[in-house]
Amino acid sequence: MQSMHSNESFSSSFKRGYRGLPVAIRTLITLNVAVFIFQVVLGIVSSTYGNALVQAFAFYPEWQTALFQPWRMVTYMFLHGGAFHLIFNMLWLWWMGRAVEEHLGPRTFTVIYMGAGIGGALLDILFAQIMGFNFVIGASGAVYGIMVAFAMLFPTMPIMLLLLPPIQARYVVAGLIALDVLLLGSQDGTARIVHLGGAGIGYLLMRAQTRGSNLSKWILPLEQFWYRLKGSYQQPKSKTKNKNMYSVSDVEVVDETEEQAELDQILEKISEKGYDGLTQEEKQKLFELSKKN
């Protein structure tokens, strides 16, 4: 029996795979690749322009720079020093990030990714006096945060590395972190402090997540601001009508109304992003509500 995708062209297969990526990973990979292409084109036009781009948006581990040019703590994550640097980071992001985003949802995933990248940059400021002041570029710190999140969510998941036998995720990630610690100060041009800072922030954010913190709340204001710019922001529906309808203070009826609204919101999210797009709290809530209904 012939596979339904056996006659599919490479471009069609690529588009299907690209569209099948979770929304946050798809956006991050697209931005990183687009910025790298811009870097390459600018470098071809003039090496001076290429260097100017890096110096304008790379992170410099000096507190005055971080204070007066804070955007560098974000923009440095989207610049890369070469094709292999980009490919290495994006492959790790795709390999481990997909399961993390599907488990936690795109908002929480984005908070961990960006938080790890920013945290790695801030830690680099503290160690720059010892390790030296150098421009930092690359998504490695952010990716390390996602790798730690993966190891915490799926510690025994086997990972294949080249010709090695399958190794559990927790040992792979721990090994990479240990390697960075051993190579600190090796002058090989790798910002290992940023890696370690990203890993540490990823761990702390995941601990907060597992203890019940709603990390997605940090991304919601930015999301609402973006929708306002697009003119598609919708105010949450008022519950005034429901409260007036049950002016007898029928607590049970009010609770049922609120639960139904919450259930509708979760079902709407499933229709948009699938069941895997739900956060762990939403999945638990859906289970509890479905038992009642």
Automatic annotation (TrEMBL):
| Positions of the Peptidase S54 rhomboid domain | 69-206
Coiled coil ranges (UniProt) are: none
- Looking at the UniProt entry, the stretches that span the membrane are 21-45, 73-96, 108-127, 133-154
Broad class of the protein's primary localization: membrane
Q: Name one GO cellular component term.
A: membrane
How is this protein positioned relative to the membrane? Multi-pass membrane protein
Pfam families noted in UniProt: DUF6576 (PF20216), Rhomboid (PF01694)
The GO terms this record gives for MF are: serine-type endopeptidase activity
Domain of life, per lineage: Bacteria
Kindly state which keywords UniProt assigns to this record, in alphabetical order.
Hydrolase, Membrane, Protease, Transmembrane, Transmembrane helix
Similarity-based family: Belongs to the peptidase S54 family.
This protein is called Membrane associated serine protease, rhomboid family
